[in-house]
Amino acid sequence: MRWRTVLLTTGLVLGLSSAPASAAEPVIVDSTKHGGRTVAFTFDDGPNPADTPRLLEVLRRHHVKAVFCLWGDYVEANPQLVRKIVAGGHILCNHSMHHDNMGEWTPEQIEADLRQTSAAIHRAAPGVPIRYFRAPYGSWGQSPQVAAKLGMTSLGWKLAIGDWEPPGVDELVRRVKDGLTDGAVVLMHDGPNERGQTVDAVARLIPELRAEGWRFDRPARR
Known about the structure:
Layout: E1 28-29, E2 38-46, H1 52-62, E3 67-70, H2 72-77, H3 79-87, E4 91-94, H4 107-124, E5 130-133, H5 143-149, E6 153-155, E7 159-160, H6 169-179, E8 184-189, H7 196-211, E9 215-216
């Protein structure tokens, strides 16, 4: 799919903090707050009325908090789902207004987009903190610096499981369990298209990972 070609071109595991940042350069966080045998689930490109409510119910039933990286167009179309995400105690992330590739954008263009997206989120859920920003396609450009200026930590990932082209629930579960490392932020999707396989995989993964000694955490912040 066109909108994912930049995100992953090889493999399933993608680390985004390969080089140390200078003191003035914002860090792209891809690890959990507490480290060790912990994992943070993050969901991109929603909210999606077909699958986000069922995902929220799975997370509620298992007492897991996740990060939802919200696409502004779908926020405006489904403000009630943003409120449900907030009511569930989950963390919000700005994922841009139209899911454009910002890699070559100027800081002024990036800031205008991030402000527009955050404004849309706040119209749906006034006053809620937006703690993170995630660049569409993982094409960061100058967006980490702009996000930091706006009070948001740039959120990367250590494991992306390719659920935008659903390979089956069993395969999604296998990809997570085979690719998981200590303190990993995992990238999955609750939108924009049908994501039933992801929801079913999450419903299986949470109890299985807990049985193996994994704890669910939130991403670190910088």
